[in-house]
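Q: Could you write out the predicted structure for this multi-component system? I'm mainly interested in how the pieces pack against one another.
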Amino acid sequence: MVFSSIGYFGIFDIVQLFCYFIMVYCSILWFVVFIKNHYKFFVDKPIKNYPSVTFLIPAYNEKKFLSKCLNSVLNLDYPKNKLKIICINDGSTDETSEICKNIKNRRVLVINKKNTGKADSLNIALKLVDSEFVVSMDADSFPRKNYLKKIIGHFDDKDIAAISPAMKINKPQTIMQQIQWVEYIFSIYLRKLFAIFDCQYVLPGPGSIYRTDKLKEIGGWDKNSLVEDTELAFRMYEKGYKIENCINAYVDTEAPEKFKELFQQRVRWYRGYLQTTFQYKHLLGNSKYGNLGLFILPINFVWIFILGFLFFMPLYMLLKDFSEYLHILSLVGFEWSPLIFNFDILYVSSYNYFFVLFFLMGITTILLSLYTSGEKIDFKTKKIFYFGYLFIYPFLYSTFWIAAVVYEIFKIDNKW
Amino acid sequence: MVKRKIDAQLYIIVFFITISIFVAGLFLGSVLSKNKLSSLSEDLESLERMRNTQETNSLLLDSLDEKICLGLESYINDMLPEIENLAERVAYYERSADSKRFGIKEYEDIKKDYNLLLIRYWIITNKLEKNCDENIVDIIYFYSNKKCDDCKDQGIYLDSIKKQYPEIMIFALDKDLNLSTIEILAKSFNITEVPSLIINGKNYSGLKNKEKIIELIAPESK
C-alpha cells in the first residue's frame, strides 16, 4: 500500500505539496473547461445590421503611435457612416497635440483638455457618445482590419455589456517583449476560458467594446482606480452584467521594452488588482457571483501565496546550501573537488515527478495557446520566446507580484 | 441581473482527477525509493559475494600453510574501492529526503548489513596489520543522526581527511542502529557518546578537528 510507506513529511513538504495541488488542480480545471468548450472557441456570430460604434482614443504623450492607431481604426472594414472616433488629447506635452490638430477627417472628433488621467478622459468622451456601442482603444494599439466585424456579432444577448478582444504584442524586439508575446498568447487562451467560465475580471484598454447604455448606466470608468479596466469589470459583475470575449478580433499592441518599464506597469496592474478585490470584497466567496466569487477570486489569493512560495523556496534553498558551504569552508578551508557526473538512481528525487508534470503542462498550455491564437509554433525563430517564457517569466511574474504586495502593504509610491 | 451558474460538478470531477494524479505521484515515489533501496542492496550483495570469496581464499591459504598475508592483502585491496563507493552512496541516500519518507524499515536492514560488513572488513585490516607487518591507518567513527550537533562537523573533518589522505580507511558506524556488534565494539573501547573516534585502537570521544586527528594518527610527524 502506498500510504503505509510514507514516513515523514515536514511542514515544508506539506506547504509545497499544497501549492502543487492547487497548481495541478487549476491546470486540470482549465484543461477540462477547454475540452468541454473548445468547439465554441472560433465561432463567428452573424451581424444583423451594422450598429453604430464610437472609438475612444485617450492619448497622453503618444506621438509615436497615435497616427498609426488612428489610421488602423479609420481603415477598419466597417460601414463608414457607422464608425466615429473621439480622440482625447489628455494634456500631452509632446507632439501629440500637433498630430491631433492635423487630423482632417470628419469622422474624428478631437478633444483637447488638461491632464486628468485616462479614466477621466474616457468619461468626458463617453458623454458625447451617441452610438450603440463604444470601444476604448489605447493609443499604442492597432486593431486589425476585421476586428470590429468579428467582435460586434458577439453582442447577441441583451445582458452582455462588454466584450474583450484578443491582444497580441506588436513586433516583439527585446527579450522582455518576446516573453510578453508568449504571455499575451497565453492570455488569449486564458481569457477565452475565463469568459466561458463566466469569470473574466479584466476588460483590457486596447479594444474592449461596451454597450453604451449599460456603460453610461453604471457611470463609466473610475478615475480613482489604478486599473480602471479591472475595476470596471468588477463593477459589471456586481451589477449582474455579462462579459464576453472574442478570440477572432485581434488588436496589436505595443509592450514595454525594458525590465524597468515592465516592472512599473505590472506593479501598477497587480497592485490595482489587489485594491480592486478589497474594494469588492463582498464578491469574495459569494455564490451570487458564480464561479468568479466562489472560486476565482479566493483562489487568486492562494495563487499570490504560491507565487511568493515558489519565489522564496529556491532562494531559501540556495541560501541554505551557501551557508552550509561557508560552514564547511570555515572548518576545513577550500578544497578542490572535481565534478564527476555519473547517473545514479539515488540522485532522482520523487519531487521530480512534479517538475516533469509542470513542464509538460507548461508545454501543453503553450501549444493550446498557440492553437487558440492562430499562431504557428515556429520554433526556429521563436525559441528564445518559449525558453524565456518557461524559465525566466515565472521569476519575473513572481517578482512583480511580490513587489505589488509589498508596495501595497507599505503604500510605496510607484511612479508610472 | 444575470443568474450566474456554478459548475459544482466540474469542481468535484477536477478534484478527483487531481487527487489521482497525486496518488500516482506517491505511488511513483514509493516505486522509485524501492528501486533506490534495491540498488543499494544489490551493491551490498555483490560486496558480500566478494567478501565470501576472499574469506574462503584466506581460509584455504591458511589451511594449505601458504602465506596468509597475500590472501589478506588481496582481500583488503580488492574490496576497498567497492566499499568506498557504497559508503558514498549510503551517505548520499541518508542525506536525501527520500530516506525519511519511504521504506525506512527496509533501509534500516540494509544499513545493518552494511555496518556489519564494515566491521568485518575492519577486523581483517587489523589481522593484516598484526600478522603481516603492514601499516594501515584506520579510523572508526561512531555517529548518530539524532541529537548530535557535532556529528555533522565531525563528518566534514573526516571527509576532508579522506580527500587529502585517500589511503586512510574510515569506517562510519551508526550508533542508533541497535546492532549488538556495534554495541560490543563500543563497549570494548569504552565509548558512551557520539561523535567518537577509534584511531589505531584508541578511543577519542567528542569532536576532533582535522589537525587534531592528523596529530593522533601520526604523533611523530608533528
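A: Regarding packing and overall arrangement: Chain B touches chain A through 47 residues (CB under 8 Å).
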